[in-house]
Amino acid sequence: MRKLSKFIFLFLLSTSGITISIANNLPNQDKLVNKIYNFSSEKKDIDMTTKWKLTGLYLEKYKNNFTFIKNPRLKIFDINLVTNVSSDTAIDPTGQMDEIYLNNNVYINRNSSSNDSSAKLYTSYAIFYLPKNLVETDRDVTIITEDSTTTGNGLSADFDKGLITILSDVKRVIKKDNELQTIKGDQMVYNTKTDEWIVKNKPASKLKKAIKDKVTTTFNLK
Question: Do residues 109 and 83 make contact, with C-beta atoms less than 8 angstroms apart?
Fold first, then answer.
């Protein structure tokens, strides 16, 4: 397989009643410089340890470093942790591997070998700040763990700190002793390192607005 040593991809998304189509964001085809089918790429550190691997159905790269990926599959490796990320499409207009925009059927699966725990996250789109190991969205999210299903609106997940924050309108359904228990809150924080949840009675409105504004500014939306 041909490999690309380094690239970035931003991902299409939709914001508050406005849907951004792939066709509206792709450059003219005459600016296409390379198209690779069934591609594979990876990044290693100075010790030759693999930090992440990326595959996809195909990749298109343009003269201005804009990169489009169909069916991206990203696997991130950390100490005792493996994070799998997938979505329908991916776009990166800068080529700096800083901000990854995932669009449609976004799925993030984080597995820990230290405590044999797993957390699965589903949403319609998400911004992945790869150098910070941070994921954000202002859309509806669902998080599934071994004993619970949690839904809410908006998310900020700092994987380095092990903190997943659902920003508003949170509902958590817990299965314990063959019974279901429902907990509601304006905001919830899940600590993946301790497997503990904290319920807050105030939504993270400022952070949610900042995430939404980021998307709107990036795509020049009104």
Answer: yes
Q: Report the amino acid identity of residue 20.
A: I
How many domains does one find in the chain?
1
Report pLDDT digits (tens) over 18-49: 334 444 556 666 688 999 999 998 888 888 98
Q: Which of 198, 121, 185, 195 is nearest to 162 (CA)?
A: 195
Q: What is the pLDDT of residues 96-131, one digit of tens each?
A: 777 888 889 999 998 877 666 788 999 998 888 888
How far apart, in Å, are the Cα atoms of 114 and each of 109, 118, 139, 192?
Answer: 16, 11, 31, 11
CA dist., res. 88 & res. 75, Å (int): 15
Residue 44, in any domain of the structure = yes
CA-to-CA separations, 166 to 6, 11, 59, in angstroms, rounded: 32, 21, 32
* Cα(40)–Cα(2) distance, integer angstroms: 7
Q: Domain limits at 32? A: 14-218
Q: Could you report how far apart the first and last alpha carbons of the chain are, in Å?
A: 42
Is residue 78 a contact partner of residue 52, using CB atoms and an 8 Å limit? no
Does a structural domain hold residue 3?
A: no
Is residue 9 included in any domain, yes or no? no
Is residue 121 in a domain?
yes
| pTM, entire model | 0.80
